[in-house]
Amino acid sequence: MPSLSIVIASTRPGRAGEPVARWFIEQARAHGGFEAELLDLRAVGLPALDEPDHPRFGNYTREHTRAWSALVRGSDAFVFVIPEYNHGPAPALVNALAYLYSEWNYKAAGFVSYGGVSAGTRAVEATRPILATVRMVAPPEAVHIPFIDQRFSEAGLVPTDEMRTAAAALLDELLRLSSALAPLRRPGEPPVTRPASPSPPAACSAADAAIDVSAS
Ligand SMILES: Cc1cc2nc3c(=O)[nH]c(=O)nc-3n(C[C@H](O)[C@H](O)[C@H](O)COP(=O)(O)O)c2cc1C
User: Does residue 40 have its Cβ closer than 6 Å to ligand 1?
Assistant: First the structure.
């Protein structure tokens, strides 16, 4: 069964991210397609990026980078539980993504976002290009929770039917993507190369091209 890490991106005391992530992991376990676990960026505790080299070289000099690398390498797919801060993503998430490269490659990633009226959608859209740059594949399906402060009762987070439906759709799509991407993640798998170019048709020979140029 593929593994899924549910990443809590907010690190603030009193964060909404933790109960939202705990709700989502229940959805993931009920879905049954993944071995799901929580990955809390506050507990991971990465400092602001302090590696000298670009992560694509894998020349990690810090113990915290090696530990983060092992955690991310061990996961087949990710769900980022993200708040919106100043119309953008949480800084701990941007920092954690920048630490690594090959560990993220060809893995499926989804979002559970929350905030005010925008439901964290601006943070999601600002994060998508970062995921694409580290070769992650993120489907459009997502859980977006507006006015997160109104979603809590004294008993905790009060999920809606829309949240549950969106979570199931996201998990279905992550499972499809994760299995489709698996061959690209296998170490030693030969890279897919394009077939050799066919010989050019007679009308496109070098001599014909020369005639066309001189006629123009
Ligand atoms: C620094 C900061 C900036 C925020 N900026 C936005 C924003 O641009 N849009 C929005 O919808 N909510 C914004 N909020 C509200 C947060 O989305 C909301 O407080 C949410 O609970 C934060 O997530 P957290 O509790 O997990 O840290 C902001 C909150 C903080 C602390």
Answer: no
Residue 82, beta-bridge partner list: 113
| CA 213 to ligand 1 center in whole angstroms | 61
Q: Which residue has the tokens 């809606």?
A: 160
Instruction: Please give the domain boundaries of the chain with CATH numbers for all domains.
Output: 3-215 (3.40.50.360)
Asked if residue 87 has its Cβ within 6 Å of ligand 1, the reply is: yes
Mention every residue, 6+ apart, whose C-beta is less than 8 A from residue 8. 15, 17, 18, 21, 38, 39, 40, 41, 42, 81
Q: Is the pLDDT of residue 83 over 60?
A: yes
CA-to-CA distance for 9 and 54, rounded, in angstroms? 22
Beta bridge partners of 69: none
Residue of 23, 41, 85 best suited for mutating to test ligand 1, as the one with most atoms within 8 Å of CB: 85
pTM given for the model:
0.90
Q: Report pLDDT digits (tens) over 111-167.
A: 999 999 999 999 999 999 999 999 999 999 999 999 999 999 999 999 999 999 999
